[in-house]
Amino acid sequence: MCMTMMSDISQDLLEEILSRVPITYLRAVKSTCKGWKDLLNDPSFSKKYGGKRDNEFLAIMTSGSRASLMSVNLHGPRDNKDLEDPFIKQIGELNQDQIFKVFHCDGLLLCITNEDNTRLVVWNPYLAQTRCIQPIDKFYIYDWYCLGYDKDKNHKILVVYSPMFGRIEYEIYSFLSKSWIVLSFPTDWQISRDECLSLKGNTYFIAYKKMEVEEVGFQEFLLCFDFTNERFGPLLPLPFQCYNQTSLVLSTVQEEQLAVLCKRCDAYETKIWITTKIEPNAVSWSYFLKFDFKVDISGGSFFVDVEEKVAVLFCINREKEKGINNKTYMIGEDGYYKEVDLGESNWCPSMCSYVPSCVQV
């Protein structure tokens, strides 16, 4: 009987086999032999590995102090009763301790810890590399922390200090120089929500005009921080009249477009729009999907699949007497609906899409 050795198989087959290895086992696989390590560190392979499959994508879920790698399949059978193969599965636990928040950009995870002394750790799970970022003074857990890059692909971290501590300051850290600079410029707006995300190297926030702060129901806008110019752009319109009584969530679509979900707190109707143009100084929107949804989406997350015309929502269910029950809902046209119970937790699940890369930290 002839036994086939791994060295005898074709390169294409080897890549296909290694592309199916769960990301939590990559470190062990890389240590097996130099050839595998070189292949796994090749940028072209990481692109193939990172969700070029037609039927699924990867996401990072944080809940409490835990971070998990999830596989989300939006192309499974549309059978409400078929829960034997749920559309979302946990692949593995990510072994960074005490994570409060995760911000994803370009395959890197900016981890904000929830220890007494808040720390920033930049982590590439694919390469098993980390870098601890030292502050100018001190990090605070409720400030905004964002990761991006400029036109030359130099990665940077933006810190926006929360006004709850009586100050509004901006600091930016450069991976290239390994140093901080303090930014100072006048603004006529204030960031209004925890919501922010990265798209094409820039970070997008929700903000409102300061002059309206005393008014009941101030209007909100989209706001971009440009990491190339190291400046905020103008307030950009959302595709609806959005006020602070509205649940509003941002998401990305295949790392190319921005999506926004809007749900009034006093109504079930939920709407989603997707950008047709998105730049630091300009935006245009296209209507995507409308559905009725009874669950509170505040603090939650969502993804959309344009081809399947479905949305996946991650949020809390407060019907249980103890703790919080986290659930995932897949909702589409013509009343399509499916849900998966993620278990009890005292924290609302936060999800961000994840595409592995070979960016060094």
From TrEMBL:
NCBIfam families listed in its UniProt record: F_box_assoc_1
Protein name: F-box associated interaction domain
Organism, scientific name: Arabidopsis thaliana x Arabidopsis arenosa
Pfam families hit by this protein: F-box, FBA_1
Residue stretches making up the F-box domain: 9-49
